């Protein structure tokens, strides 16, 4: 049985899951920007909050404002280049957990659909088979709830396109609950937030090569 989707407010500050001389991993609450947006009203963000205590922290990758979970920051520009290269070369493994509408028939699979910007409707993205960039998501069913017609799934984005997980799942008819950009109105209204959480991050430490395996409790 899936847990209820009416959630308490997210914590106001990110939790530091890992901190050393090379990198920081923070647990971003849903509703907080990863980096500053345009205008003073969007200055508050995860990177600014971490930099208040660790001035050399630099963002390496991003999560959507509506997505919660683990996000990596580098300590200084040299570490930022090394960690950014690890992402570009797909040497960082990311796992997300989501609750989606509908009961997936298979236990696991892949979504291989090219994605591109939906320019008239930015920031929306879309499946674009002519001009889109190759995009691949692997998924696995963690549990099914026939009573509600929903599934809890683990997601591994092989590529890192904007809104990739959200667009891919909506494209196969299993939009994420609480997704106000890509889900139908009933699915968008079925949760008080987007039910998507970056739950696990695995990478080699850029200084000594030790494999880091960091996790965050799924808050839904």
Do you know the CATH architecture?
A: 2-Layer Sandwich
Number of domains: 1
Distance between the termini: 12 Å
User: What overall geometry do the principal axes of the alpha carbons give?
Assistant: globular
Task: Write down the secondary-structure element order.
Answer: EEHEEHEEEEEEHHEE
Question: Could you characterize the architecture of this molecule?
Answer:
Helices cover 14% and strands 34% of the residues. By secondary structure, it is an alpha+beta fold. Strand 7 (115-117) and strand 8 (125-127) form a beta hairpin. Strands 1, 2, 3, 4, 5, 6, 9, 10, 11 and 12 form a 10-stranded mixed beta sheet that branches. It has a two-stranded antiparallel ribbon with strand order 7-8.
Describe the structure concisely for a colleague.
This protein has helices spanning 46-51, 77-88, 164-171, 185-188, and strands at 15-19, 23-28, 57-59, 68-75, 93-101, 108-112, 115-117, 125-127, 136-145, 150-157, 196-204, 211-215. It is of the alpha+beta class.
